[in-house]
Amino acid sequence: KQATRDRLSDAMAEKELSAVVLRLRHSLSSCCKSIEGGEEETSGLLEELASFLDSISEAATSEPENEEARKNAVELLLEIQSFLVSSSTPNQAVVDALSFELPKAVSKFAGVSDRCLEIADSIIDWFVGRCNPRDMICILSEALDSLSTSSDPGYAAPLLTGLSKVFVSIKRHHFKQAKLAVPVVLNVLKVVSVELADRDAERVLLFNIALAMADSICVVSTKLDRGESEELQSLMGLFILQIMALVSASIPSEQSGCTPLVSEICKLLPRCGLTYLGLITESDVDAKISIVTKDKEDDIMTSFPDMRLGASLSVIWGDISNEIAEQAGENMSALKDKLQHNQVQRWEAIGMLKHIFSSVILPWDIKRHTVEFLLGITNGSFTPNCHNDEPITDCSIYMPSLFATAQAITKVIMHSPDSTLRKNSFEALKRVSFFIFELLHSKSTHMWAIMFDSLSACCYSIQTAILLDLVRGELRKETLPKKSTNRGDEAGNHGSPTESAWTERILELVELVLRPPHGGQPSFPEHGEAVLAALNLYRFVLMKESAGKTNKTGVLFRKNLLRVCNEWLVPLRTIVSSTMADPENDPDEVAGMLNPIELVLYHCIELVEQNLSANPDSP
């Protein structure tokens, strides 16, 4: 009885399959006749064909265990393939019309089985060989664009493969055609990196196909005239940098699993005119952007939001693996040596690393390697100047980037679960803060304005504290000659330009912390480190000026003493006292944070009162 039931089931399945195949043949035949006859209902027939194929692919993919549905999918694809390659091949008008629907429809079968993927590739390849290449780029790009929003972006594999092949066939306007396809491909890969996170094989396949496309385009670029070749290589350079960012973020659990893809990307870097030095200093990135964006109205750059992240990651991956660096034709030891001995390039490199430190999607392991790289290029002693082999007219252009890197490193310190990474990040933060401090020695007229704006926007107390401690350390090393025994005399010797830059800004630095520009008073524990550093800086300057009977910083002017006492120190004392008395706060935690602050605060108040009493007639 079971055997009989099985035979009946097989017979019904065969009958159902025959009906499906017959319907497909009828639909294809009707479309061909309508196209050849120029009939009005052609569009409707093509849509009906696409809808029919979609229903079959959906049935097969929605029930992966349904063997009959998988078999139907294979038979239908074979029927389409047979129809296209048969001796009665339709004329070009029919081929062109079918190309608008069939490539997209058959690509949806790619996820059913490896056999379906193979046949779908073959069908799309057939259209690529028989249709106008520029038309096929548009058709495949539109199909990809629609699939990127579908429930399964894994269907994109045959379309990406076809797009890779069609570029080789283009005879002219290569750069224009590539600009049409690249945004669509990157959008698909962005979806893939999220939606296929648990399907490694499919994700890696799609990234490899995209890299193969980039490789094909690079090959084509070598056969073009210099102008278009440069444009195409620059576009591919930005393309693979964006892919580098996606790849690095999409495989966070296994670094080893990511390495083969990264190696393939780095292999393409030299072919696109990209070097590790140019990437880490941003010069290559800027050069490629300049070439690609000659058309000012072009919005192509919106497709590369993470290109600078990808540029930084390319170098860090080379530092992680010698094999990867060799694929890029690079020597990491030589690169680090250049950065150690070239002050400007070191600043630029540190500025580029902010993209890695600030990323919320990269694994901690990559950030750990990035910290190690930063520590490596900042080893040794540095002199506080803004000069290199060539004179620099304005060092202030590096300040915002360095400050952003410092803020990003602070995020790592605050959020990293690894104590060793936090410790190394703190050392990295101190070194970056030193370079910020180093820039403040320059004679740039608006350097300080940039620094004050950056500190005002800074969310992390520890970063501000480190910079203020560096200022205090520098003042400790300086020998301040006497300006005048008359503390009211504002004329006289202002010292060196560097001295003047520091001395005139001390009160502003302290006020930035004790009287925040957004109003109110500093809060605890958020601003504890910065408040203590500001108080220590003010106390040190007050004691040094009093002992030396100088007033280079202006802190001993009576109006400044009264302002500091009444507007900064006394209100701060109230906040500290209320915080320590608050029963909701942990006594041990509060004492550990506020006791040092309270000690320095009361000493500052005492010093201010002593100076006010000693010089009641000073202005």
UniProtKB/TrEMBL annotation:
Residue segments, region Disordered: 481-500
InterPro entries for the chain: Glomulin/ALF4 (IPR019516), YAP-bd/ALF4/Glomulin (IPR013877)
GO molecular function: ubiquitin-protein transferase inhibitor activity
Comp. bias (Basic and acidic residues): 481-492
Any Pfam family matching the protein: Kinetochor_Ybp2
Coiled coil: none
GO CC field: cytoplasm
Name of the protein this chain belongs to: Aberrant root formation protein 4
